[in-house]
Write a structure and sequence with these properties.
It holds the Pfam family LytR_cpsA_psr. The chain is of the alpha+beta class. The chain has 13 helices and 18 strands.
Length: 396
């Protein structure tokens, strides 16, 4: 397929393990690794960003909590501001033998604390508004991340973060391109509201008309990009377009479906990055490392990047467990004409288990909260059509 370019940043996800493995393995030895580390650390790491939600101390020997954030900057709509499009808590237990990924619905009703530095008074709102509150009036990305971290910390009963990351769409697209795409399994039919082609001219463009930021009718002569159930080798633009969708999913699971697909994308990224054809190719590794600074802004909480790398280097995609809050079902509440998502009791218990570093036992007692692997869902009875892994999701 023909590659494509988007201007609007969108969460596509960071996995620290991915960058850590690249840095360590591509170093070829302690000296080479140190030189690479010094070079790329300056491009990736930033100070601050966690505010009162920062974990104390300068060690990650115990349990590790990371806040992973994707933002929608709305560069063409200043009035919309900058909001957190996706929010994930990545928890690594003290044993450092697993990674649990928990997505927080962006419409979750929360109490956002005041942020005097940006003259934000605080109040009850959707959790994705916290980033905007800290971003405004000169706060920038660091201020937005700080207020979001403090808001998630309050939601999770005082959870502290050892680090955080912001990822942008344009930079991440280059990173996936450098890897040569990813292998993704589509677990429900998805129609793209952002990508389509004119059936007469072949030109690309948005396939739907919009009203109140929602897709309505197809535009004349436009055919939308469709992702059918099955497993495919996707180019960067396909994978990122797929995990962006929430409006026209076959299961009508909206943000919960999108969260699941984004979590699956993380695992696909790690699996591809650590595959023999990529990690042993010095040209590919160098190209990917050069793209890391464009894709990832990592707030390391004053912990040296070397500590992060050597602590997390043993983790791989098979040790990642993706979790769904509210069992993937909508729990909506309307207040003052605004619709919110609220977390059920089991979701709150999961957050409490993260704070106590007891996620493993909690998941064992609640297996229904684990998202099925996409390859299992895509090849389950009745999940047709299933195509060859080497076939694209669709053709122009």
């Amino acid at each position: 397929m023909v590659g494509r370019k988007r201007k609007d940043p969108l969460w596509a996800k960071l996995l620290l393990v991915f960058g850590a493995l690249l840095l360590v393995i591509s170093g070829g030895g302690l000296i080479g690794g140190k030189l690479l580390l010094d070079h790329y650390s300056d491009q990736i790491t930033h100070e601050g960003g966690l505010g009162q939600a920062a974990a104390e101390g300068n060690t990650i020997d115990g349990p590790i909590n990371l806040l992973l954030v994707g933002i929608d900057e709305r560069v063409d709509n200043a009035e919309m501001g900058v909001r957190a499009d996706s929010i994930i808590i990545a928890h690594v237990p003290a044993s450092h033998d697993a990674v649990y990924l928990t997505s927080i619905p962006r419409d979750t009703k929360v109490r956002i604390p005041a942020h005097p530095k940006t003259r934000y008074d605080g109040g009850t709102d959707k959790i994705n508004a916290a980033f905007q509150g800290g971003f405004q009036n000169g706060g920038g990305r660091k201020g937005g991340l700080e207020l979001l971290a403090e808001t998630v910390s309050g939601l999770a009963g005082g959870l502290k973060f050892n680090g955080a990351a912001i990822v942008n769409f344009d930079g991440f697209k280059g990173l996936v391109d450098a890897m040569g795409g990813v292998h993704m399994c589509v677990d429900e039919r998805v129609i793209s509201i952002h990508t389509g082609w004119n059936t007469k001219t072949g030109k690309e463009g948005p396939p739907y008309n919009f009203a109140n930021d929602l897709p309505t009718t197809l535009r004349p002569n436009m055919r939308p990009q469709i992702y059918e159930v099955g497993c495919y080798d996707m180019e960067a633009w396909e994978a990122l377009d797929y995990v962006r969708q929430r409006d026209k999913l076959a299961n009508n699971d909206g943000d919960y479906g999108r969260q699941r697909h984004q979590q699956q994308f993380i695992k696909a990224m790690v699996k591809k990055a650590t595959s023999a054809g990529v990690i042993t190719n010095p040209i590919k590794v160098t190209e990917m490392l050069n793209k890391m600074g464009d894709a990832v802004s990592f707030y390391n909480n004053n912990i040296p990047l070397t500590d992060w790398i050597f602590t997390l280097k043993g983790l791989n995609a098979d040790q990642m467990v993706t979790l769904k809050v509210n069992n993937g079902d909508f729990h909506s509440e309307t207040v003052g004409g605004k619709s919110y998502e609220v977390l059920d009791d089991t979701a709150k218990e999961l957050l409490a288990a993260i704070v106590r570093d007891e996620v493993g036992p909690f998941v064992a007692a609640h297996p229904e909260m684990v998202n099925n692997n996409a390859d299992q869902a895509a090849t389950a009875p009745g999940a047709t059509p299933t195509k060859s892994p080497t076939v694209k999701a669709s053709t122009r």
